[in-house]
Structure formats: C-alpha cells, structure tokens
Amino acid sequence: MATNKDQLLQLIEFVQEISSQPGNEWFKGKLIETLIGNATPNNNIEKEVIAALSTNIESIHKYLLLDVVPIIDYSAVEDDIIRNQLYRDCLEMLKYRLGKINNHINFDEFCRYAHLQAEELINYFFYMKVDGDISQITKLISINKAKPEPPEHLSHIAYYTKLNAFAKLSKIDSKTKSTLIFINNLRNEMSHRNSLQIDNEDQILCDFEMNKLSGYVNFSSLSPAQTELYNKGKFIINKRLQDYDSIYDALRVLKDKVVALLIDQKLSKNAQVI
User: Fold this and answer.
1) pLDDT (tens digit, 9 = 90+) per residue, 226-239?
2) Does residue 157 lie in a domain region?
C-alpha cells in the first residue's frame, strides 16, 4: 500500500535536515547505501535517494526510528493550511523526541508542540463545523452568557473551555482528555516558569503521599485544599514520568475524532441535499 504523500514530504524534509548537520556524514552514506547500493555521496545520487524514498520507506523508518517515534497521519484533514501546519508541528515534536535539537531529548518542548497540534485540531473542528460563524461557535461551546461581550474570534475562547465542549460532543475518553489537559498545563508552566515553584515539587509530592492521594481517591471526601494538592501532585508525577506514548495516543484519538465528526457532518448535509 502506498505511503501517504504528505508524510513522505515531511520525512524528506527531516532527512535533509539531518543529513546537512555536521557530524552526520555517516548517516548520509549509510542512507545512500541502504537505498541504492554502495556509492559515493554526490548531488546526483542525493537526488536519486530522494526519488527512492517513496519505495523504501521501511528502510528510512529503521534509521530514523520512526517505527518507534512515528509521524502522525494528518492526511484526512481537508484544509491544506491546517494540515501542513499540523505536519510541521508534528515534525518539530519528533525532533525533540529524538534529541535532534541541541542533541538533547526534551520532553517539555515535545509537549509544547503536541499541545499546538491539539489546539489546532480543536479550533479546526469548531471552525469547520459552523463555517467559522463565531456566534454559532459560542452557542456550540455554551460560553457563559453572563459575560458582557461575546468573543470576537475563536482564538479568544479559552482552550480548556473548547476542550471541555469538544470532549462532550465527541465523547472522548477520560484518559485522552486528561492527557490533553496535562500537555496544556505543562505548556502554561513553560510560559510562566518559576524556578522557586519548581524547587517545591518534592515537598508537594511528600504532602501528596502523606495525604494518601497516590492510590484510590474518593474525590467527594476531599477538601478544596486536598483537591488542589491532588491536581498538583498528579501533574508533577506525570511530568516526571515523561510518558511519550500516551501523548502520541491522545493526539491520534483527537485527530480521529475530529476527522470522523466532520465527515459525518458532511455526509449528513449531502443526504439532506439529496
């Protein structure tokens, strides 16, 4: 089965960047050897390598570890601008996962680019569902009518509000929603970082254990202070756990839900026309 063209183009961009970095000459030679046999790297051969990518994608996966750290398939996102931006953010996320930026695997930056994709997908869903009509979006999200003025743009609506609304509409599972909330919170922490607060994390975890919040928790029995402690403790634990796979899974689930809901809506509209 043919590999998605957009994925291949993103892969080519990634390969070109890696090949151009000092010290990665061995990678270029090994790649050429794998794809078209033993040869001396030169411009003509590099063109042949690029041409051969589509038929040798499994070999590229082997050397870039893309079987372990895959590019998310956004080919079903119809809007070209949105789809290309999602692929670019996914590619940046991939670089931080593989340590291609400053030779350092960076979970925080990985999550930041994961959040960019999540917010892009949710904004895309609401915009496409009502053709960008902000008044309809406001009704769909059920924004508090007590506010003096409705938002003028989709970007003015808080991400958490949009995520909650989407979760209800799509019936997204609680694990996926929790993961999407986590990467949003981590992005916010990066934007408003306080080193003194980070130093207090160990104490928060001690209090977390002392309050017996690590096992089963009956939330109805918690005081507001204990609930806050639970949320802080879980955030720190998840941040230190660095569960890359759960974030990939959450993005895939979100993408699949967005695409499926928009396809269903289009089919419904077409059926009404007929």
Assistant:
1) 999 999 999 999 99
2) yes
